[in-house]
Structure to design on (725 residues):
């Protein structure tokens, strides 16, 4: 039964990782931008959500509805005015720019809201769970985060494969020049992709803020798990990202079940093994 | 505005204040000059100058420790002993305090200490976490500059710098407490609860966790408790279900830890969700300060921890004559923030500097000052501190009391003293209550 519990908790944890990884996967898949500020953006979103919750007196789940669209707009602007400019110079410049963005966000937060750690108040939800038996209880919070991750990733997948704009995003991802020739406004499409990526990272930030506590320096530590989920699943593939997140989560929890000191390490090992055996990821088809 | 919003607002103003502090440091020295002009006519002219350096993590992840630094140091600068200068060996000395920020980074801590030494510091004071105290002390020891540290378990400060039992550092000293005091503080609280004497222990794979694993667990076992080690998990672990299951299966009714704050937050929420509800949780390293409590919300109620200084401590400053309560009240009134234990410790650092530098013939004689520090015994706002009776040379021990977090009236949560086994000077102001009834 302890193993069943470990697998269930691992899958649910995978939802959080996948939500985190989704934006990273999208930005790399479409624009070839490795966004090093990804984790810091999530932390920023969590602080914004806290401000919304205390300012408007709304529950935490509603705050996500404010923060995610707001981040979408910010994402579009950042892509058009900051990242696009560096993309025009060279792909390496984008690394420097997003790294700089990461440092700026951390220090602005430190100045503005102090180093004190915060958490999004979830009230009764924080300790509520569905008790299956004495060995297995499933926290509502984890279920909510997991469901949000599944809904977000599947609707994004649908959007990319069915919607007109989604097809343009795929076209721009596959062949930039051909897409421009047939009349796709590539810069606008890139902006849309960044907007979606930022909106999902905002959701991840809110989920993370419920799950644990955050402070201005908490971002980079979360980035590594997101990277691993993306690589395990296959870069640019959203289903792959969900699968990658779940595999990483299950590996960590199962590892910890064997020995506590083995938890995080087991995740890294699975990542390394898959990187060696399937360098393109488990579902390599990009955005298809 | 809600309480949270209030707090957030206060945080922001505090930051602005901190920023302003940089500017005010300049204006302060100008003011000090003016003051000096006023005094000079009436009192004796000070012929020398003493420089005191102070290093603490004012920004970065450990910044919570240094929340009260500005207030305390402004108070010290205004204290008559510091304002009119020290007298030593029949001579008067102006006193300059230079404050440096370690940014919670050991490399940075060493760099700013070097700056202090280069600018002629006669003594370097430092506070909060081994990441500050150890690089600062190491550099001071190497450069032959007297140093006093606090808010660091003495084992981390002593063994962490490669000392073997009995070794004596020549220039560096400290006051705080260690694992024996944690045990002396927690065990009486455990004994008061009616439990099966099974203790869940959550110690991470880092220096603090290792210190607890190798030194605290034997104490736990020797006291007749069954120890359930949750395993050396990595800092930053996101899921604790396996550890929680182990604790549940062994029916652990007591809980002890020394985690990073965000990890405790994650663990404690998951423990509540998955039904691990120890009768008493005694935590170390986390929930020391009010700011830590809000992130956990009501789950913080009746968690017990150690407290080495509070307004309830019946001690008085040797510099300002303030009682502990007056210092804490003054801090709350001037900043709008809740008192925290580091106020007393930082204040005491400057008491100690005053004691040592004024009781030698020449305060610039670094060997004499260091010698004085190592044999000092005095009673100030942190209570009696005696460097002749420490567990190792250069160390004075404070005796912490057991406290629990409860719903507060003025602030969301406040500390209540529930056990004074180690320090009877401090009256209890509440009964020990189970963390989970």
């Amino acid at each position: 039964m302890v193993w069943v519990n470990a697998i269930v908790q691992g899958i649910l944890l995978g939802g959080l990782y996948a939500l985190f990884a989704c934006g990273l996967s999208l930005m790399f898949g479409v624009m070839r931008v490795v966004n090093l500020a990804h984790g810091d953006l999530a932390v920023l979103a969590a602080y914004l959500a806290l401000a919304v919750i205390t300012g408007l007196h709304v529950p935490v789940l509603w705050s996500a509805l404010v923060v995610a669209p707001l981040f979408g707009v910010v994402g579009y602007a950042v892509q058009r005015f900051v990242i696009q400019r560096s993309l025009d110079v060279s792909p390496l410049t984008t690394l420097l720019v997003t790294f700089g963005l990461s440092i700026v966000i951390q220090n602005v937060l430190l100045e503005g809201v102090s180093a004190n750690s915060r958490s999004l108040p979830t009230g009764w939800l924080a300790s509520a769970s569905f008790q299956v038996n004495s060995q297995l209880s499933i926290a509502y919070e984890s279920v909510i985060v997991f469901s949000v991750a599944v809904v977000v990733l599947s609707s994004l997948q649908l959007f990319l494969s069915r919607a007109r704009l989604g097809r343009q995003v795929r076209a721009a991802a596959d062949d930039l020049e051909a897409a421009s020739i047939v009349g796709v406004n590539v810069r606008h499409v890139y902006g849309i992709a960044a907007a979606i990526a930022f909106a999902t990272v905002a959701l991840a930030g809110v989920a993370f803020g419920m799950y644990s506590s955050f402070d201005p320096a908490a971002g980079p530590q979360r980035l590594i798990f997101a990277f691993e989920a993306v690589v395990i699943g296959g870069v640019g593939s959203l289903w792959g990202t969900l699968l990658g997140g779940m595999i990483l989560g299950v590996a960590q929890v199962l590892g910890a079940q064997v020995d506590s000191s083995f938890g995080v390490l087991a995740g890294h090992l699975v990542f390394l093994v898959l990187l060696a055996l399937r360098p393109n990821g488990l579902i390599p088809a990009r955005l298809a | 505005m809600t309480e949270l919003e209030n707090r957030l607002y206060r945080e922001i103003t505090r930051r602005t204040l901190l920023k302003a502090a940089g500017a005010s440091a300049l204006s302060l020295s100008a003011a000090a000059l003016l003051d000096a002009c006023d005094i000079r006519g009436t009192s004796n002219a000070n012929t020398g100058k003493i420089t005191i350096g102070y290093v603490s993590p004012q920004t970065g992840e450990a910044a919570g420790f240094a929340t009260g630094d500005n207030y305390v140091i402004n108070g010290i600068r205004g204290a008559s002993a510091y304002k009119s200068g020290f007298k030593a060996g029949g001579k008067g000395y102006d006193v300059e305090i230079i404050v440096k920020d370690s940014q919670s980074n050991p490399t940075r801590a060493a760099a700013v200490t070097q700056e202090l030494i280069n600018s002629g510091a006669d003594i370097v004071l430092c506070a909060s976490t081994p990441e500050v105290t150890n690089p600062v002390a190491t550099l001071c020891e190497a450069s032959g500059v007297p140093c006093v540290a606090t808010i660091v378990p003495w084992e981390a400060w002593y063994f962490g710098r490669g000392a073997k039992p009995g070794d004596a550092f020549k220039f560096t000293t400290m006051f705080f407490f260690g694992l024996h005091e944690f045990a002396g503080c927690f065990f009486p609280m455990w004994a008061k609860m009616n439990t099966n004497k099974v203790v869940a222990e959550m110690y991470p794979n880092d220096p603090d966790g290792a210190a607890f694993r190798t030194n605290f667990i034997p104490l736990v076992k020797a006291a007749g408790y069954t120890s359930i080690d949750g395993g050396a998990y990595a800092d930053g672990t996101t899921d604790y279900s396996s550890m929680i299951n182990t604790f549940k299966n062994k029916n652990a009714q007591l809980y002890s830890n020394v985690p990073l704050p965000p990890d405790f937050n994650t663990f404690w929420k998951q423990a509540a969700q998955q039904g691990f509800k120890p009768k008493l949780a005694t935590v170390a390293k986390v929930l020391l300060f009010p700011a830590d409590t809000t992130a956990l919300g009501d789950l913080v109620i009746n968690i017990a921890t150690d407290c080495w200084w509070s307004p309830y401590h019946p001690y008085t400053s040797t510099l300002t004559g303030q009682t502990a309560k007056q210092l804490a009240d003054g801090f709350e009134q001037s900043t709008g923030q809740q008192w925290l234990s580091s106020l007393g410790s930082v204040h005491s650092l400057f008491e100690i500097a005053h004691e040592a530098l004024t009781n030698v013939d020449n305060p610039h004689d670094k060997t004499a000052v260091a010698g004085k520090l190592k044999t000092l015994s005095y009673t100030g706002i942190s209570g009696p501190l005696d460097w002749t009776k420490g567990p190792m040379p250069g160390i004075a021990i404070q005796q912490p009391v057991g406290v629990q977090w409860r719903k507060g009236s003025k602030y969301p949560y406040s500390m209540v003293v529930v056990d004074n086994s180690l320090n009877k000077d401090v009256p209890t102001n509440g009964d020990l209550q189970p963390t989970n009834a």
User: Anything to note?
Assistant: Residues 102 and 109 of chain B are 4 Å apart (CA to CA). Chain B has a mean pLDDT of 89. Chain B has two domains: 3-177+311-397, 180-307+400-419. The two ends of chain B are 33 Å apart (CA to CA).
